[in-house]
Structure formats: C-alpha cells, structure tokens
Amino acid sequence: MSLVLLASNKQESFSELAEFLENNNIKIIRVESGEKAISMIKDQIFDLIITDEELSDMKGLEFARNLVLTNPMINCAAISSLSSEDFHEASEGLGILMQLPPNPEKKHAEALLKHLNSILNMTANVKPQKD
C-alpha cells in the first residue's frame, strides 16, 4: 500500500482526488500546515506529497522549497492555478513531478497515479552498483 501526505487547509477541495486514490490502495494522511507536513516526513516515509496552493502557514511552493531541503528525493505534486509556463518558472528546481489544477478531478488523479506508479516501478528496479 502506498502512502500519500495531502497538505491543505481546504481538504474538501480534494474529495474526488482522495476518493480515487483511496480506492486504488493508497492511504492518505491529511495535514493543514507545511510545518506539520515537514515534521511528519522526518518520521515517516511517504510515496508522494501533494501540496495545495495555500496551506495554513505558507504557500504551496514555499512548502515545496522546504520539502526539497528536508528530503530532495521525495515525490511531490502541487496544486496551482498558474499557467503551465508560469508554474514551470515558479517551481523550477523543486523537483515537482506534476502540477494539478485547483479542485482536481478523477482524470487528474488517474494521471497522477499513473505517473507515480511509473516512478515507483523505475526506482524499485534500480539496483545499487558494486564498485
């Protein structure tokens, strides 16, 4: 079972996304603040973090910057109302695997899950090289 951390102070905006993920054997843990999310990833391994545009204590992209400093290898998707070009510019270097629109729907959840599974399958098949 995969584990996803959903950081948002508007959890109701994610009902369709969350329902789809939960129906696909993914456990979701919800938090409202970036600070709480950062604290949680220090103690627990998540397959994916989804951050909203606005958290209770910071902007989503600010949280993504903090996330990269804490764990640069973690998968992160971000909700953003920016155009794809503006989002790319604002998030460059943060390693965000996917931009999601505000109030993501089932089709967005399907694309996210497909992308995440692809990454998890690739990393599961990587074997350390011997020197």
UniProtKB/TrEMBL annotation:
One of its GO terms (biological process) is phosphorelay signal transduction system. The keyword Phosphoprotein applies. InterPro entries: CheY-like_superfamily, Sig_transdc_resp-reg_receiver. Keywords: Phosphoprotein. It comes from the Bacteria. CDD domains: REC. This is Two component system response regulator. It comes from Desulfonema limicola.
